[in-house]
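If your schedule permits, I should be very grateful for your opinion on a structural question. Please examine both parts with care and let me know of anything in them that strikes you as inconsistent. The record follows directly beneath this note:
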Amino acid sequence: MTETQASILEPGKGESSVSSQHRAQTPINHILERLSALELPAKEQFANYLRHKSRLNHKRRTLDGSFTSTMLFLDFYRKLGKYDLKDLERSDLEAFIEHEQDRGLKISTVKTRMAFIMAFLHFLVEQNLVSGTAMKKPIRFKLPDALPRAIAPKDLRKLLCVIHNTRDRALILLLLRTGIRIGEALGLTLNDIDLRDRKVHLFQGEKNSMGRVVYFSDDAFFALKRWLKRRDPGKQFLFYGQADRPLCYSAAASRFKKYLSRAKLTEKGYTVHSLRHTYASELLNAGMRLECLQKLMGHQDIEMTGRYARLTDTTRKEEYFRAMGKIEKGEIDGDYR
């Protein structure tokens, strides 16, 4: 009798083998195995939610979409320095949406992603595990072609004049002079900063694992030096909050709003993210090539970087008169066919 025949005649042995193989190949077990290797807030609740969806016979595509979208949000939430979803605020959801759109995702993709995330959060509300306060009002999405909101030069001078706190000035100038995202800045450790060469190492990119290097100017350099002299050397993160956690997004955003109020700029619609837009707009106005800015911004698609080019009136004006000067001097040769 062959081994195959034996396994058929011995139900216990054969069924056990086939059953274990079947379990290993099911979509939910594959997803839960991936989840087990991650460090995420509310990891246990997330696993229970995925099992719940599996019991309701959701399709593999739905399970995958739910896993990917919610995993990205929970990882973003962790990078904000928050670990308990009971602390979830509306601003956290809005920050994630802005973050995803800034990475170049289409508005339809972001909406789909948020639908998966909101379904998970509503599940937790039904389980009385979190409050539904952050989700009471519908969240508005930016129009896909909306221009970034850069801070006008005169407003920027007003803003910087009212920031006297050593840590806050270092953080805001670092954001302004490097163009890094707020989540990237809050996740920095001392080892990521190179004062000698005035650069920041972002070892893991927001959308891929390649990372990038950005540079900072003299004013950011001196602000960072002052902060490094005063900060607790025993802390891991460059900008830390409670315990040894990074400063959270909501705290940073709140401080920024405070300075906007001091500078009487609250009606201008500026946010912390405006510092990144200002960085890009100023570099383009100063003549930086779009391809170079793309690398510094960490954009995979140059069309995303091109959004800022529409703001750079100075650059377009200079390019126009430079080209027209050649035309007027008769320096253009060739036939038009």
